[in-house]
Amino acid sequence: MRLLDTIVAPATPPGEGGIGIVRVSGPSATDLLAVVFRGKTHPADMVSHHLYLGHLLNRDHQRVDEVLAVLMRAPRSYTGEDVVEVHCHGGVQILRSVLDLFLEAGARIADPGEFTLRAFLNGRLDLAQAEAVIEVIRARSERASRVALDQLEGQLSRQIYRFSDQIKEALALVEAHIDFPDDEVGTLDLGELAAPIRELARDMSVLANSFDVGRALREGISILILGRPNVGKSSLMNAILGESRAIVTEFAGTTRDTLEEQLVLAGFPVRLVDAAGVRDTDDPIEREGVQRAKDKAAAADLVLLVVDGSAPLTEEDALALQLCQSEKTLLVINKSDQAQICDLGKLAAFTRQVAISAKYGPGLTALRSAIVDHLCRDAALSGGEGVVITERRHRDALLRAITALEAFQRTSAASEHLEFLAMDLREALAALGQVTGETTPDEILEQIFSRFCVGK
């Protein structure tokens, strides 16, 4: 790990824009700025966190751009090191030229996530907060952004540290009785010791279970519109989106592949998928579309199973029904504007049903409410999230810690040797430490920060 290097990278995405920002961090950041920047104030005399107008010059003393430069002195910077940011014009060539100036002066290109990695290694952020940085950037809804910001501000970390502190208190008590005779520290009441640990394990389970919410906010919800051909699936997709996105005709089999669109419902990013109509067909293209519909049905978080309320159920309807699991299926009875002759008794297994007219609009508000109710079926989803975990790695660490605490309770109930109790508590601490980075192996750190963009 080359922490003595001074690194540089563009902090704004590639392409044309009003401004572009180049970020420099490391022990030579101020010196490198002095090489390329000319203004009324020399970089060595700049006041930290103030913007200064000047020009960047190349080695031939030719002007590259008029810029604003800011120096953020350690430790009051993102990385905890001296950080320089140059705000230049946002053209592709200008950014490349500014970057080249700092490279020629002695900086090197930053690795992906290296700025945030340095912030972690310098104690500016713990690992859970560092991971939240990428979640803030990639958030696909306001609700997901709010959860990520809470993590960045340390809400999750404080919860993990609270768990760790309680375990450390119990461990200190156990180790005191291991190291000293009973006549010096008194008799250890294992039942009294196990009670708060049992409560702690329950609290940790609640946090671990919040991953279902976090995963939905981070990855989005997949909603599949499924049914036989010509029941109004594409019309329904257009109605939900509020725009004509899918082709609608009176001919069966118009949709031959899956069509996906993004939207936000109840604060959750949603991927809405219109699938090919389910039926037996000799057309190889349509057959592949039907197979993809079957695959999507197995993986979807919610299936909107569409049937035609104005017609009897068919064998093709039965094929679509076979692909659906009732607990994650919402039955949508379309064409409610026409006489209803569909035998709904055959669909009684699907207790959640909504009648709509995708063509004319009635029932669409009720359908949206039913979808939101499904997304918010857990009480934790319907109100404020509290502390939510979004990383699978965090959930796995919590589950390992819970397993260790459960072993502690079994050991204490059996009045086993105190050394075994201490070992269980240490395992729980080590698992929690992987969330905040205290016990995280280097290879895991490399994997985490490789997901970041170069300028972050």
For this entry, give a set of tags.
single chain, about 450 residues, alpha/beta, Gyrase A, domain 2, Four Helix Bundle (Hemerythrin (Met), subunit A), Rossmann fold, 6-stranded mixed beta sheet, 17 helices
Classify the fold: give the CATH topology of the largest domain: Rossmann fold
- For the record, the CATH architecture of the largest domain stands as 3-Layer(aba) Sandwich
Tell me, briefly, the overall form.
flat
End-to-end gap: 17 Å
Write down the Rg. Answer: 29 Å
The largest beta-sheet arranges its strands as: 3-4-5-6-2-1-7
User: What is the CATH class designation of the largest domain?
Assistant: Alpha Beta
What fraction, in percent, of the residue positions are helical? 40-55%
| Amount of beta strand | 15-25%
Put simply, the count of helices is: 17
Number of domains: 3
| Mean of residue pLDDT values | 86
The CATH homologous superfamily of the largest domain corresponds to P-loop containing nucleotide triphosphate hydrolases
Strand/helix succession = EEHEEEEHEHHHHHHHEHEEHEHEEHHHHH
Computed structural class: alpha/beta
Unreliable spans are 251-256, 378-384
